[in-house]
Amino acid sequence: MQNSTLVEGWGRATRSRATVVTPGQGGTDEDWAAVFAGAGSRGLIARGGGRSYGDAAQNAGGLVLDMRGQGGIGTVDPVTATVEAGAGVTVGELVRHLAPRGWTLPVVPGSAGVTVGGAIAADVHGKNHRRHGTFGAQVAAMSVLTPAYGPMEMSLTVNAEQFWATVGGLGLTGIIRRARLRLIPLGSWWVTTVDDEQPSLDRVLERLRAVAATSEHAVAWVDHGGAGVVTGARPARLGALVPGRVAAGRRTPVLPGRGIAWPPVSAAADRVRRFAARIRPRHERSLAELHFPLDALPGWAGLHGRRGLVQYQFTVPFGAEDVLAEALHGTRSAGFAPSLSVLKLFAEANPAPLSFPAPGWSLAMDFAARAALAPVLDRLDERVAAAGGRVYLVKDSRVRPDLLDAMYPGLARWRAVRSMLDPEHRLVSDLARRLRLTDQRISDLVEAGHA
Predict the structure, then answer these.
(1) Max alpha carbon distance in the chain (Å)?
(2) pLDDT tens across 185-207, in order?
(3) Coil vs helix vs strand at 68
(4) 28, exposed or middle or buried, with CB in 10 Å at 0-12, 13-18, 19+?
(5) What percent helix, strand, coil does the chain show, rounded to 5?
């Protein structure tokens, strides 16, 4: 008997009931095809580590496939510098497995709990986009179970159009089962980070450009006025490859009200962050501590109150820095203080139509979830779209669908490929319904040359 289960996003601000199914490890293609056949009218969506902030891995009234059991890590091929991993293997498991062997993943997200399948479906990025691009760009090949064609091998040379529609495709083109991932040599499990306090947004952006050009990793934390701390990281203790123990973060409590997103609290946190960077700018950290800062505070969403948090992340092109300033100032003046604001720099985009990173700046802000926040972010969405930017769909829970064509110019092309792979709309999520992502219009097919 299958029971309805409450499934929620990582931000705890979205939730819906679905039937959660755990496929058997190593099932046959026929077993997997039966999953599609049993999806019913509400369809299904695959779910990995549950690290999507919003509703991308929820499916109200339908099926949710728990992919965490789909594991297995192959041997490293030193000739091609690749390794094969099951879709349910987490990025953290892979990084720790590869380190003693002298290899690592070029790109990782901010939480070790993101699975390989989820990282591809979201086309996640790290703090080094300028050097290595996105996670999807590191996929040499992958096996995807599609509703229309069954198992399909995809790579840059085999079914390339379907490959790029699946990278960043939010799990709506097929079920990713395993992938062969590119690796880079690892010089050390340890890194040296250097913090640099800057007094204004212009100075932060200038410094972030410089650090990204010379460091493996670069990121900046900013306050509502634009002042902040730019952090760069380089390998330390070359040859030390054995991962050390990482203390598990202590589960954080659920705070009342807006929790740490209350303006006086967030302002105090900003001052502490800048002061700490000023008195002790240099640290030695493990690779895990550098890559996965979100895991230091399990239950981070609960610190934003019982309603959870909304993470608003957008990118705008170089030259649209006024939108960054407006986001920082405007949200604060409207009464919504972000508990954390993080800036990154993006380089060239890859060919995936729904991939988020594009040349320019990325700003991510964590807010306590409140209904009154929506119109504030709606106005910001319009400014982002008008500037040629976009919001990050895998973290979204409220953007208006009428803005998507402007934010993602390749949306019609993605819809056309998706429609071929899943003509009966077996794959669906709460996010897909809310944004009408899988609505196929004849004009889309004509525009994309498929009709």
Answers:
(1) 63
(2) 999 999 999 999 999 999 999 99
(3) helix
(4) exposed
(5) 35, 25, 40
Please tell me the distance from the alpha carbon of residue 224 to that of residue 226, in angstroms, as a whole number.
Answer: 6
Written as one string, the DSSP assignment of 423-435 is TT--B--HHHHHH
| Three-state DSSP class for residue 24 | coil
pLDDT digits (tens, 9 = 90+) for 111-157: 999 999 999 999 999 999 999 999 999 999 999 999 999 999 999 99
Instruction: Say which amino acid occupies 375.
Output: P
Residue pair 225/268 in contact by the 8 Å Cβ criterion: no
DSSP secondary structure string for all residues of 409-422: TTHHHHHHHHHHH-
* pLDDT at residue 425 is higher than 60: yes
Token pair of 59, please? 């499916």
409, two tokens: 């110019």
Of 167-176, 232-241, 329-338, 391-400, give the lowest mean pLDDT range. 232-241
Residue 22 to residues 36, 70, 172, 264, Cα–Cα distance (Å): 13, 9, 18, 44
CA 232, 117, 165, 418 dihedral sign is negative
Q: Residues 398, 377: contact at Cβ < 8 Å?
A: yes
Of 206, 214, 245, the closest CA to residue 232 belongs to 214
Rounded Cα distance, 352 and 168, in Å: 7
Q: Is the pLDDT of residue 441 over 90?
A: no
